[in-house]
Amino acid sequence: MSFPTMGQPDTGDTAWMLASSALVLLMTPGLAFFYGGMVRARSVLNMIMMSISAMGVVTVLWVLYGYSVAFGNDKDDFFGDPLEYFGLKGLIGGNSAAAAAGKAATDIPLAGTLPMNVFVAFQLMFAIITVALISGAVSDRLKFSSWLVFAGLWATLVYFPVAHWVFSFDGVTAEHGGWIANKLKAIDFAGGTAVHINSGTAGLVLALVLGKRKGWPTTLFRPHNVPFVMLGAGLLWFGWYGFNAGSATSSNGVAASTFITTTIATAAAMLSWLLTERIRDGHATTLGAASGIVAGLVAITPSCSSVNVVGALVIGAVGGSLCALAVGLKFKLGFDDSLDVVGVHLVGGLAGTLLVGLVAAPEAPAAVKGLFYGGGWDQLWRQAVGAFSVLFYSAIVTLILALILKYTIGLRLTPEAEAAGVDESQHAESGYDFATATGGSVLPHASLPEGTFDHDHRAGDKVEAE
């Protein structure tokens, strides 16, 4: 069979996948609010910019060669042919190409039942948010120019090949796809390995190479805007239905099933995180609820097509409590993962991926039996090999990239720029104009959000809320 195949798309599937693509794109601004609210007021713009800039960098690379590397014909079990769809060759203007070939003008390049351009757009949104997720581990201290270079290199050398391993199935976009999907047959329905384990590992490595924020862990780096955090979590939950249910690539029963299991696991994870906080700290927090939502979404991502209601509840409950406990590891082990990318995305991704081997139910769309349903250890070892292969590959290549950038263009802000604040030093902007808000006078110290700077003090003394 030659690729791309030509034919007439299913209009219902196309409509659903266009909507899903838009939902997944919305997740990146949602992530920007989620991360932006968790940093101090003087870092909010930079945090938002790292997510938004990923939309620009990754999009350009994706249409040039990224899609071809991820979904072109397999080369040595490593990556797709980068020239097969270079510049989306043969995919743009499909009707004209079909007519020129003597076929009906309604015949266009397909990926399954979809116009291939719709599949290109859907997978692009995955690539964007995977890169953006890494930024949460390195707030307050990474040069913005270095972030842009890192984002492009990491997408090229890590995400695009890993997406090929996990998401490229034989006979869909090319004759031969990736080894995890087709040879190992590990289940990763929507990106537990390719997205969350991948980005969580990269965030850990980049944070280690960058080093700790000045003052961490003795200085409190409290969220400056918890309503932003909750808004971001809500947008992520909303957009995640495109992420998970959209990965069915069809408006069918699989999409409906994954929609339900995603909802169940997310609700269970939020409650599990809150319960863990209540037992450990004596109170449940709004920040904990938002974090529990994201932890549940992460954990159910690889498994949403392979579990029933009970399995979704288990994955949500385990993922929520496990991630709530894991965010404290950075204090015990001494790595400054600023916004808990490791605790939520790496740990949650691992949990959700491995639990498939235990609670996968035969009645679910994937029709696989986990250990608890009489399937033995077969699926669990497949899940483990897939998860840790991505983890080790991401760690090694990220470390090489980070060290190259550190000793060439530099990664970290200068001490002076870090003291001035990343928004001011990198973007010459401030998220909040306190002087304008008070009619030209400077707010008293008690009115400033904690961790901001009183700019009348030229020495840059930190102002603590009274």
UniProtKB/TrEMBL annotation:
Domain of life per record: Bacteria
Ammonium transporter AmtB-like domain: residues covered: 15-432
Protein localization: Cell membrane
A GO cellular component entry from the record: plasma membrane
Membrane topology designation: Multi-pass membrane protein
Spans traversing the lipid bilayer: 15-35, 47-67, 116-135, 147-167, 187-211, 223-243, 255-275, 282-301, 307-329, 341-361, 381-405
Keywords: Ammonia transport, Cell membrane, Membrane, Transmembrane, Transmembrane helix, Transport
GO MF term (any one): ammonium channel activity
Main location: membrane
Family: Belongs to the ammonia transporter channel (TC 1.A.11.2) family.
Protein purpose: Involved in the uptake of ammonium/ammonia (NH(4)(+)/NH(3)).
Subunit structure: Homotrimer.
NCBIfam families (UniProt xref): amt
Protein name per the record: Ammonium transporter
